[in-house]
Description:
With 505 residues, this protein is α/β, with parallel strands linked by helices. The protein has three domains: 2-136, no CATH class; 145-226, Peptidase S8 propeptide/proteinase inhibitor I9 (Alpha-Beta Plaits), CATH 3.30.70.80; 246-504, Rossmann fold, CATH 3.40.50.200. Helix content is 22%, strand content 30%. It has ten helices and 25 strands. The strands form six sheets. A seven-stranded parallel β-sheet has the order 16-18-15-20-21-22-23, with helices on both faces. Strands 9, 10, 11, 12, 13 and 19 form a six-stranded antiparallel β-sheet that branches. It has a five-stranded mixed β-sheet with strand order 1-6-7-4-8, with helices on one face. Helix 5 runs parallel beside helix 8, helix 6 (333-345) packs parallel to helix 7 and helix 9 crosses helix 10 (497-504).
Amino acid sequence: MCNPTSIAEGRATARLTTVAAVFCILFFAFSLPAAHALNVRLEGDRLWLHAEDVSLHELMRGFAHIGVRVKLDPELDGRVHAHIEDEDAERALSDLFEAVGYVFIWEVMDGPLGPWPKLAEMQVFRTGNRRDARPLFDETDTFRVMRMPDGSGIEYIADEIIIGFGPGSDQDAIRVLIRQLGGTVVESLPELGIYRIRLPPGTNIPALVDQLTRNPLVAAVEPNYAYRTPAPVRADEMSPAAAPISVRAPRDGAPPVAVLDSGLTMLPDMEGLVAGGFNALQPDQPITDTAGHGTQMALIASGLIPPGGTQTEGNGVPVLAIRAFNDDGITSNFAQMRSVFYAAQQGAKVLNMSWGSPANSAFLQHAITEAEREGLTVVASAGNEPLNQPMYPAAYADVIAVGAALPDGSPWPQSNYGDFIFVSAPGTARFPVGHQGEPGAYAGTSIASAYVSYALGLYAAQNPNATPAQIREALRKAIQTEDRAWDRQRGHGLLDRRALERLLQ
């Protein structure tokens, strides 16, 4: 969490005489190997910068790599030579850009190290032309994904780790460790006492994590795991025509269901059913959903679209749409955790997570556990491959893991199954928007998870004081029947129309 603290702005001097500025700034005579032509690191308000004949664009990309939002006037160009070693960042950058206009925006992060200054944004432009500075290289919404070398298929964000330090750790020793890693603290989650650290390009993250687990200063460390929205599954041949819809406005005071996904494209019928939105990747940007998956899930979770074999009627459910996945359907573990806490802080009673990964993150599990203590019930899809293997977050303790069923109630053949399944729900639906494709019928445990979230949203509106444990137990009683024991495909049972009636009676 960050709080803005200051803005530093400079004006051009007479040294800038052409539109294409040429930077020839040399603090010390210093030659770097070609492989290290650019190296940028920030430690709070201290700067290390080695730039050997790099372009201005390359320089700004270097700052973007360590988590600084950068804006550059496209009319500016030139070469940069610089050697800055442990200097005051604002003063050094002011000297570096003295020939042009600039703005530096600083924030303060909270966390185990106490208040930590962070250079949040840099703007560089021609004199008097600040309005021409354009966002460049935004790595908060563009992820470079790597795959673990162990054949697990688990993915992570390149050059990043998430790290937590033991209680009472020496702050100076932690700073030395981060400096030895060549890392820059990009952001923190004070709720968990952890940091996201950006490392030099090409860092061997699996090897570094293995090394850091043996460091006595480190309480926990993981790669910043990557997650993807599930691939679209068309279901035109198995999904009947949509059932009639009769959805009224949400019950007064009904808490929202948070849909943590790819955002939301507002449709006319959704007016009055959207309680708010949040872009977890770029908080100052809209939640526009170009992929379509998040919009589909919001339509199910609100009650506007009934899955095959069901019918929605009565009150709708307010939806809090959280854009945590980018346009390519990718997100990071840190963005997910930020989203979980945001949902809890906004008063959501149910959180839908219609995606999954084999990556078992202790950090994400801890975030979900903490959010549940704040009253948030978490629902997640089991996965769209019948692997008989746990997928996360569905397989975390106390998360309601959802498998998919066909309109007739039989298991969907592609639904994952296993010991972690809690409930099965209808998993086909017809949508007026597509997911990486055209509108029409789709299938998946994503749909089933969103439908369970819709049902629990209705229950939470009727029972505003119910705890997550009480909500899970109410669902179990509603779906469990005497003639069917728990099994690895349905869990405790199927959430069909009769079970929904039992849940809400």
